[in-house]
Specification:
Elements lengths: L8 E5 L8 E3 L8 H5 L11 E5 L21 H11 L1
Parallel strand pairs: 2-3
Antiparallel strand pairs: 1-3
Amino acid sequence: MNVHVMKNTIAAGKELNTTSKVLILLHGRGSSAENILSLSSHLEVREFSLLAPQATNNTWYPYSFLVPPSQNEPWLSSALGQVMHW
């Protein structure tokens, strides 16, 4: 079951075709792609292409990371699959 679709991704920094350096920033539960991308102003990433995907409903998986991984399925596998496929 694929519950995540990487259609809402914010790009910043260098164009992808002009650099070999890419940083993918993943936001936390309840946050947003815009929020995590704001961290780039505190990092030395001027030579990077920055990509920040937005999780469905602002979360990659529904429960705390402290629960057994099986409780966060199928959302966890969907999120990991989308990021790895990307």
